[in-house]
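Checked the freezer inventory, then went back to the computational side. Two predictions to log before the end of the day. The first one is the construct we discussed on Monday; recording sequence and tokens without edits.
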Amino acid sequence: IEIPAGVTSSGYSAFSGCSNLESVTFAEGSQLTSIEWYAFQDCSSLTSIEIPAGVTSIGSSAFSGCSSLTSIEIPAGVTSIGERAFSGCSSLTSIEIPAGVTSIGGSAFSGCSNLESVIFAEGSQLTSIGSGAFYECSNLTSIEIPSGVTSIGYAAFSGCSSLTSIEIPAGVSELPDGSYGSGVFFGCSNLTSIEIPAGVTNIGDYAFDGCSSLASVTFAEGSQLTSIGDYAFSGCSSLQSIEIPAVVTSIGYSAFRYCSSLTSIEIPAGVTSIGDGAFYGCSNLNTVYYAGSIEDWFDIEFKSSTSNPLYSNPLYYGADLYIGGELVTAVVVPESITTIGYQLTGYTSLTSITIHSGVTSIGSYAFEDCSSLKSIEIPAGVTSIGGWVFSGCSNLASVTFAEGSQLTSIGRSAFDGCSSLQSIEIPAGVTSIGIQAFRDCSSLTSIEIPAGVTSIGDYAFYDCSNLDTVYYAGSIEDWFNFEFEIYDSNPLYYGADLYIGGELVTEVVVPESITTIGTQLEGCTSLTSITIHSGVTSIGSSAFYNCSNLESVTFAEGSQLTSIGSSAFSGCSSLTSIEIPAGVTSIGYAAFSGCYLTIVYNYSDLEITAGSSDYGGVAYYAEVVLTEDNLTNVKDENGYVTYDDGVEVLLLGYLGSETDIVIPAFRSHCPKA
């Protein structure tokens, strides 16, 4: 098409969608002054156009989608380029912006994937580059932004994956917030260095996210930067060090996430908050230089969330902290602090911590993985120890609580992995011990549990394989009121002796209030006898598992017992006889595994046969099972138990009190005596 000379404006959407339009010419002496919105939008066959010299404005989306356009000359009189003016001109390889252009609209050249060169005419008056202006110009390797530019919009150069260098003009005051994929330089994966001008006060969200080759970030002298936004440098995996300007007060969420080469960082004294996950994945960060005092460090708000509860602290991966040029090893908590948060989480150089009496709360993860910490005293005013507080403190050998401790709870995994801890006396006011609280405390040999504890969490003593003594301040009835749902929530599990009221528990009478026996005595090696009253209806799985010294189980007359659970008496290797009460209808798998029972008194209707592995193997080693029908055996006045099978009298066992006995002469057979 040829446009007559007298036409002054192309008109809104004049040729929009003319997908076969290949050639546009303007008559000599053209008086055209403006190309309106959408004028040539989606003219996908148009390869070139010579815009008349009198044109002063190019409207929004004027050439958007002209995917075959390889070159275009913008007249010198143009002062503005509208939004999306050349968006999607994927064959355009170069463009020169006239000196008179003062603004480039949002997404003006977005998606110009073959654009390699952008030149600004000498004396350029450009002041603003709109949001997404060069978005996804993936072949653009460099651009020299005119010095007069004061505003660069979000996503302006996002996705310019071939861009290796760019200079931000001194007049720019911020790199605005973007979202994922729309930070100012998001995904500029070949950008190697950047200098932030002194006047920039904010590096917005996602500004340099995904700049994986960015190895150097410097700030001009006198920097006025106050905030680093969320994900600002996330994924800058080549960045090795950064010195944050002195006036910065906040570091955003995931700001340095996955900066896997970052080894050192300098944090100014004025920083008051560091966002969730700010240093997530910075596994090589080994040195943190802090310009403030230890009190200032404790005043920093290290933010947390359920997804990234720890990684706001740059110390988490084991970095050394330097304050005033000195390596911090011993810390005295400042008097102004009443709650300890994440300030020292993961700090492997910490050897000692002094906590003053005014501290009332130690938050979750506070000293997690402080692997050089050897001892700690918890002040009396602390009422709770949060989850994972000392988890991974592998050299922590001593934990003491100040006199008059008001502690009421020990959180989940609080001492998990404290493999040097040998003993601990839990304060009297504690009522709950959390899940995995002492998990993997492999050196723990003794523990004192107060009477007020009403719940002990699952796996609380998992792998505490050397725990051999448990001191309990309550009564045997209190102990039976515990509900140990998982086997190693019970501190007795690995074979510990139980002391109640200072006395070793050997003989236990099940309290009348108990109708179901759980795992309260599982693994109790000091237990020698148990008397079970008639009201007990159930013995649960693993109830007396590995009570290797248990010799006597007595059921009261009129026992209402109906079930014996799996592994209930498994490993009770000292038990030689057992009575199965009349009401028992089920015996679980392996209930008597490892019990060498020679005498089984079966008053139930279960068909228990000597030598059979049925019914939990109760009679697997028995010579005979005595029932109501064949029960002619007696325990005589001397304690001998016999059985007359009609052929001979068998000596089945001895239940007397003597330690040395003489087998009576009239006994004709003594199986497994």
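The second is the one RB wanted added to the comparison set:
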Amino acid sequence: MCRLSKIGRLRAGLATGVAAFAAAACAGDNTFSSGTTVNTSTDVTVDIEEPSAAASTQSLGDSLLVSARVRAGKGITEVVYQGFAVRGDPDLGTDEVVPRFTTKIANLQGVASDTLLSRFLMPTADETREQVFVVVSAKDVDGAVAADTAQVLIGGTKVEVLDIQDGQSVQAGLSLSVRVRGTDPDGILQLQIDVTGAFEETIIRSFNPPVDSAAMDTVVVIPDGTTGAISLVASARNTLDLLGFAGPFTLNVGTAGAGDTQPPEVLSSASSEIRMELKDPVNVTVSGVDNNPGSGVSRAGYTVLAISPVRGDTLIQSDEQIYTPPRTGNVVTNFQFTPFNVDSLSLPDTLVFEVTGYMVDGNGNCAASVGGASPERLPCTTLPGGQVAAQERSGERLVRSIVAGRTVFLPAGGLILDAEVDTIRRNLFLSNHARDQIEIFGLQSEAFLSSIPVGSEPWGLELNRGEDTLLVANSGGTNISNVYLGPPVNLNPPYDDHVEDPGRRIVTPDVVLFDVERRVDDIGALRYRVTFHPDASPPGFSDRPQFMAVDSTGRVLYSTKTTLAGDFGTIRRACERGQHRDHVHAPQRPGHDLRSHAGHDRRDLQRSARVHRAGGGIGPGAGLGRGDILRPLERAQHRVPRYYVRGGVRGPGMGGVRRGLHRAHRPGDHVRRVDRPPEWRDPRD
């Protein structure tokens, strides 16, 4: 029965020509079957090329690429792209058409007669997992309309079939390599391959417990004497009992030709890291297909020459995969080898690898490849050791540096910004900036231990002088964590209760430096002038800790990273609770490593001070330049009146210059003398 109402609702709001297509498209009960092509004129044709059979599953919320080849003898005027679902039961009258993608119309005005058009369709807000019909319709200058239909599963398991091409030819009596891969965040329970046509076969692989990514590498044995076409479909079922499909792929089965003398086409590639450790692999992929009709691929392998330019010697290594019975269709084989011909006592070393891939068919015809962008049939030769290589051709060259070391990946990823070695407990501490934690790698066990949560964005690491505490600079905040590591001895079993002591967290507040000048004006009034460093307008000093160091006296020093509000990095002294705040300030360049400053002692800092006294106080000559170190002059305290800051930290007198320099104040605060009648003066006067 023809349901014109359904088609009409689908095309509501479209152009008149598309509505005409809707009426013409109603020819039979299964209007929306996959691959349906509708024509009102033999002069107009539409063929959907994308989505293809191998990409029939779409993730929820993703846009959909639709490509179609459109031809019209008298010129194309309009091409319409639609994506919709059909819900309900037609027999009960509850069926409806629900748009799942926004409709797009391409106006060509009759200037094109043969073109490939591609459009991205944007998804609607509907998150229902269901089958969606993709329809591309075209109209020519005479109003003739044609359309093509494809199907896409929205929200189903994504399924891919590798190494199979639609329409390829295969040989009877051989094995067909099939690789299927599926992904689904809800978990995959089953992968299945169904073969129908000239012969039938079903291959099923189940997964318990479910996995979010699954693969099946198998072979389909084509019975001897089989001829004709077969159809291959791969499917996957997830935990919600929803299916995802890839296919169908149509393959043509023929008999192997007698007296096969043509070798397979081969493509090889080799890849690795530029700097390799002794256990790092070189990956070799050899792929190819035998001629049609042929005897199939019976062997695939590689040969590599490891050449040492320094020592002038060469070693050869090879490996191969044997297929019984031979494989038909596209055959892909992966190999790995680790560096050899290496002088492990003289690292780093340099090696040149020359890699050749090859394939041999069932009749012994051999072809080689030395890399490149396309398959080739280079003649094979046999080396004195029996290895297969390309005749009169060098293999694909990889020049690699072999270095000492071993790479270990983080358990849960992240970004490492600093490392600290604990030689007593044989642990390596790593600051994981991205995950707000400290990673612990056991140097003896060569395994990661439980991580330590700390503050925001940990950066610099340093052991304290007693080597029982790890100091962590939390650059995302203004504090330093103290992580207790246990007594500084190698315990058996080792101390593993590594946690931060929250009561010992060191706060690193921002500090404003200022000079105070006391003077008597022309009428005899006593006034104070306060100069802040830096001034009230940005930029200013940064207060976020970055690198850390502990000097020979046990003082904890840290640098600060620059920010938008504070682009002057500083070097400071950290004080735990109860200690006197005697910070050291030294403007520094961004990213400067503090460890080079850890050896400065107290006398060095005093010798580099540039604080000048004027009128018993701190005079305007105390300019703070980049690279200067500012320390208070303790012996000047008896000459400076006791004062405190109004609008800043309220309390008793601050005890002179030493505390005045290092208490946080804001520009515009008022200074009041304690030893005279209350008289507020603006320090900016």
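For RB: Residues 1-37, 580-685 have pLDDT under 50 and may be disordered. The radius of gyration is 39 Å. Let me know if you want it refolded.
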